[in-house]
């Protein structure tokens, strides 16, 4: 199960897991230096926060990890399904070229050690995966648009293509995000999921408007690729309801901080 660190800065996944060669986490709002709606532990450069504050928060985050990473890889997400491979060639690029290659990326995979793959969310769903046999990690940003386009399935397909990953060897962590109760959507969003072939009775509920369960929609994608249900850990934390602890764009506005969810081989 997930576990909040004593300083409340991070939610750590699988602390009792036998896979001690990885570290998986999601940041909270606590213990950083950002102000206002970015208060206080925002590590995202793409949401309007002061760049110096973001850098200080990132330095702090790196110091809190069990092993200091060679790099925090944080893409500029656009709710699409581009999966970026992070390898040694990528790390050798200039910082400017790295930023270019991370533009429009919503998922990343890597087999490298001490490289922390990170995605940013503030109601969207972070999904972290580890192939325990091939030693491959993935970080996936699954908002509703990415979810309906099956970004989790596409990322696992990329892992299978490049590294020979099999679903049965994957451990997966679904982090804090908006819950079924809080995620009210219009008919057009419901219809998009229905058209994409999702099992709507399992992920949708009608109150005054439709509500969708993005946690379950992404869990079902993992299972469809052979991931065992006992190997999927769901944080079960709603960002909208717990916006004082975790950033929520629906509660705080788009110009607010972001949760950083990361996975690293050590």
Architecture overview:
There is one protein chain. The protein has a single domain (3-177, 231-265), classed as CNF1/YfiH-like putative cysteine hydrolases, CATH 3.60.140.10. The chain is an alpha+beta fold. 27% of the residues lie in helices and 24% in strands. Strand 8 (125-131) and strand 9 (136-142) form a beta hairpin. The strands form three sheets. A six-stranded mixed beta sheet has the order 1-2-3-15-7-4, with no helix packed on it. The model has no long low-confidence stretch (mean pLDDT 96). The two termini are 20 Å apart. It has helices at 51-64, 88-92, 95-101, 144-148, 151-163, 187-195, 200-203, 214-224, 249-252, and strands at 3-4, 10-12, 22-27, 71-73, 83-85, 107-110, 115-121, 125-131, 136-142, 170-174, 184-185, 204-206, 210-212, 232-234, 259-265.
In short:
Pfam families: Cu-oxidase_4. With 266 residues, this protein is α+β, with helices and mostly antiparallel strands.
């Amino acid at each position: 199960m997930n576990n909040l660190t004593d300083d409340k800065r991070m939610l750590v996944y699988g602390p009792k897991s036998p896979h001690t060669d990885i570290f998986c986490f999601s940041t909270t709002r606590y213990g950083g230096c950002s102000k206002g709606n970015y208060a206080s532990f925002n590590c995202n450069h793409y949401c309007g926060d002061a760049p110096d504050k973001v850098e200080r928060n990132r330095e702090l985050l790196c110091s809190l990890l069990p092993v200091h990473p060679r790099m925090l890889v944080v893409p500029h997400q656009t709710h699409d399904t581009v999966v970026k491979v992070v390898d040694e060639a990528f790390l050798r690029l200039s910082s400017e070229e790295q930023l270019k290659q991370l533009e429009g990326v919503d998922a990343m995979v890597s087999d490298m050690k001490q490289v922390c793959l990170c995605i940013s969310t503030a109601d969207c769903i972070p999904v972290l995966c580890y192939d325990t046999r091939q030693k491959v990690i993935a970080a996936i940003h699954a908002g509703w648009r990415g979810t309906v386009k099956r970004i989790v399935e596409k990322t696992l397909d990329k892992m299978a293509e490049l590294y020979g990953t099999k679903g049965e060897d994957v451990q997966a962590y679904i982090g804090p995000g908006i819950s079924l109760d809080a995620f009210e959507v219009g008919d057009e969003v419901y219809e998009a999921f229905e058209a994409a072939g999702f099992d709507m009775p399992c992920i949708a509920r009608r109150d005054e408007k439709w509500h969708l369960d993005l946690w379950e929609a992404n869990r079902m994608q993992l299972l469809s690729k052979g991931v065992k249900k006992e190997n999927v850990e769901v944080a079960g934390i709603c960002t909208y309801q717990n916006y004082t602890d975790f950033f929520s764009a629906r509660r705080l506005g788009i110009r607010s901080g972001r949760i950083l969810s990361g996975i690293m081989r050590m």
